[in-house]
Design goal:
With about 110 residues, the chain is mainly alpha-helical. The chain is about 40% helix and about 10% strand. It starts with a helix and ends with a helix.
Length: about 110
């Protein structure tokens, strides 16, 4: 009976992770992408920090609405002293997450079919 319970819990946790799979929040690596569409045209900086004075801006995917309350949220992302661009949620889900998912699937396929 315990094995069945653990199995059910595992399946439920995996399903929840998959359902939320596109909603990963935090810094994204735009790598080979052109600059993505952003919410604000200028980077947002809450607390100027000397170590980030010449650092390039980071691109963040945040929960919708968090950019409006960035002063209260920047600590969660370890980005209060950094210049931040907030990528648009629709672009992230349509382009970045979709491409990332396909890319991970290709690597997984290659790993098992060498």
């Amino acid at each position: 009976m315990k094995r069945i319970s653990w199995f059910v819990l595992g399946v439920a946790a995996a399903g929840a992770a998959l359902a939320d799979g596109l909603n990963v929040y935090g810094q994204i690596d735009i790598g080979g992408y052109p600059n993505p569409p952003v919410i604000y045209t200028r980077p947002v900086v809450i607390e100027r920090a000397p170590e980030y004075a010449s650092a390039p801006p980071v691109y963040l995917h945040v929960r919708p609405g968090e950019e409006r309350h960035w002063r209260e949220r920047c600590h969660e992302y370890h980005a209060c002293g950094r210049p931040v661009y907030f990528v648009r949620d629709d672009w992230y889900n349509r382009e970045y997450a979709h491409h990332r998912h396909e890319h991970e699937h290709e690597h997984e396929h290659d790993r098992y079919h060498d």
